[in-house]
Design brief:
Layout (H helix, E strand, L loop, with lengths): L1 E8 L4 E7 L9 E5 L4 E5 L16 E3 L9 H14 L12 E9 L1
Antiparallel strand pairs: 1-2, 1-6, 3-4, 3-5
This protein binds zinc ion (2 copies).
Length: 107
């Protein structure tokens, strides 16, 4: 299960990313931006070598405060508020104007 977050920016960027959690670690995912394809996407940060699901690059930066999660539950707890309250880097316009909002949940 998980949350669906809507990423929007003043430049017009608008997309949904899944933030997974629950009992299946292979489905853990967290919003990141990829340096290579300049996209917002979601990846499993606990994977051996987290990479962008679109282009396969490892040059990804997770949104939020912590960049090296050790434990998923504490990572989500530490970063959730920062993620949805703060303004973040937008790979499309290169400004700190990206915002995340809750859109829904999935099973
Ligand atoms: Zn990419
Ligand atoms: Zn933007």
């Amino acid at each position: 299960m998980g949350l669906i977050l809507r990423a929007t920016c003043t430049c017009g960027l608008a997309l949904s990313v899944a933030q997974g959690f629950g009992f299946d670690p292979s489905r853990y995912s967290w919003p990141v931006h990829c340096e290579k394809c300049a996209e917002v996407t979601a990846v499993n940060l606990l994977a051996q070598r987290p990479r962008c699901g679109r282009c396969g690059s490892t040059r990804i930066t997770p949104y939020g405060r912590t960049t090296t999660p050790k434990d998923w539950a504490s990572f989500v707890e530490e970063n959730q508020i920062d993620l949805t309250e703060g303004r973040h880097f937008c790979p499309s316009c290169q400004q700190q104007t990206l915002r995340f909002m809750f859109e829904g949940v999935f099973d």
